[in-house]
């Protein structure tokens, strides 16, 4: 009896879904379960005012379901703002599959997941994310048309990473222009943390423009390969925040700007591909602003990937993808100026502009 009372009281304290800290007026949250394949997934549809909610599916071995729910709520909200600020007619959504992508992902599980996506009738459109490959999206495509990021041979747009890297490069150049009044990256000291799919491609752009390149990764082989190819200096992970830099480009993990780094980092600009670079958007964003560090909002400058998959829905080609991605330069510069005029952080400025577009569309559709 006592246990029942305690449980009831605890349940009242934290409502399981709408009471979550990451809940942000999400429109729909779908819990998907299939006993035969072992599928446990959550689809988060944050907002569909501008269009169908598009966002990748992440497969991750979450410690518990709260973590998975928190992730899908957070990530789907991020997609709403990413698409809105990029000018795409898309809403924000995301899905998570609970499990180890290396050992628990099977074609049957992916097909079942595709059936759940299909049951939403196009309100949510899926794509690749961490733990997913193009081949997984091809399997999902067998049971639903509401999927992007399928292989080029099947009419898809292929690997988005080079486009993402190009967009990050454009955003970085805008930030450098804003901060230094410089049109080129020539001679700028840039540290790229994480030289995976996006980071390596970013390094190539920087090399071609004559930047002074520093690289850091946990993959030693990759570091040696790139340092040779692009005359880049290797920096151990624990020395990143001691370097005097012009640009810090986080392209590995999120939350690298946190309580222990935000006051010590020695850079003029932060512009990278990683999602959720600020551990606390408001708090750390404000400290960067006070320190005069120009932060290019991650969800704005890493939008090349979504521009790339959006092409599959709209049927436009590579030229238009590149054109739209190049425009990240103009949007980033606008955001820096708008933030300065309004004395707000660049992160908040980008959120405001994205929200403005959603609100205008909402108003227009009511007329
Ligand atoms: P990736 O897995 O190919 O590369 C990540 C790299 O980071 C790897 O080389 C890995 O060894 C390295 N790394 C991991 N932990 C590290 C650590 N502690 N310190 C230093 N390096 C570490 O991933 P990616 O596709 O290049 O994406 C990079 C980042 O950009 C991710 O945060 C991803 O969410 C984000 N992003 C990617 C895309 C895209 O199109 N691929 C689009 C938007 C955002």
UniProtKB/TrEMBL annotation:
InterPro entries: Aminoacid_DH-like_N_sf, Glu/Leu/Phe/Val/Trp_DH, Glu/Leu/Phe/Val/Trp_DH_C, Glu/Leu/Phe/Val/Trp_DH_dimer, Glu/Phe/Leu/Val/Trp_DH_bac/arc, NAD(P)-bd_dom_sf. The keyword Ion transport does not apply. Gene3D superfamilies: Leucine Dehydrogenase, chain A, domain 1, NAD(P)-binding Rossmann-like Domain. One of its GO terms (biological process) is amino acid metabolic process. Keywords: NAD, Nucleotide-binding, Oxidoreductase. The keyword Oxidoreductase applies. CDD domains: NAD_bind_Leu_Phe_Val_DH. The active site is at residue 94. Residues 158-366 form the Glutamate/phenylalanine/leucine/valine/L-tryptophan dehydrogenase C-terminal domain. NAD(+) binds at residues 194-199. Belongs to the Glu/Leu/Phe/Val dehydrogenases family. This is Leucine dehydrogenase.
């Amino acid at each position: 009896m006592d246990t029942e009372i305690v449980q009831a009281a605890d349940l009242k304290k934290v409502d399981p879904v709408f009471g979550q800290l990451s809940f942000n007026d999400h429109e729909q949250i779908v819990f998907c379960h299939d006993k035969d394949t072992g599928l446990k997934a959550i689809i988060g549809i944050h907002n569909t005012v501008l269009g169908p909610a598009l966002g990748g599916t992440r497969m991750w071995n979450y410690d518990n379901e709260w973590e998975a729910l928190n992730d899908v709520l957070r990530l789907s909200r991020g997609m709403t703002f990413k698409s809105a600020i990029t000018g795409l007619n898309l809403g924000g959504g995301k899905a998570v599959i609970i499990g180890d992508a290396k050992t628990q992902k099977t074609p049957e599980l992916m097909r079942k997941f595709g059936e759940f996506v299909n049951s939403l009738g196009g309100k949510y459109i899926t794509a690749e994310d961490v733990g997913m490959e193009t081949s997984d999206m091809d399997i999902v495509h067998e049971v639903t048309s509401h999927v992007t990021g399928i292989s080029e041979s099947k009419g898809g747009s292929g690997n988005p990473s080079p486009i993402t890297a190009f967009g990050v490069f454009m955003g970085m150049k805008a930030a450098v222009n804003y901060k230094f009044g410089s049109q080129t990256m020539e001679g700028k000291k840039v540290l790229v943390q994480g030289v995976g799919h996006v980071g390596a491609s970013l390094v190539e752009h920087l090399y071609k423009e004559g930047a002074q390149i520093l690289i850091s990764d946990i993959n030693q082989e990759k570091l040696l390969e790139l340092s040779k190819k692009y005359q880049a200096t290797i920096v151990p992970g624990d020395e990143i925040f001691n370097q005097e830099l012009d640009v810090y480009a986080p392209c590995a993990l999120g939350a690298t700007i946190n309580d222990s780094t935000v006051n010590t980092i020695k850079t003029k600009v932060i512009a990278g591909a990683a999602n959720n670079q600020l551990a606390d958007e408001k708090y750390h964003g404000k400290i960067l602003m006070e320190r005069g560090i120009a932060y290019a909002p991650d969800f704005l400058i890493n939008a090349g990937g979504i521009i790339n998959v959006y092409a599959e829905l709209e049927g436009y080609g590579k030229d238009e993808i590149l054109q739209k991605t190049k425009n990240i330069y103009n949007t980033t510069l606008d955001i820096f100026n708008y933030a300065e005029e309004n004395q707000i952080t660049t992160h908040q400025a980008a959120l405001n502009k994205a929200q403005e577009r959603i609100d205008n569309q909402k108003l227009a559709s009511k007329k």
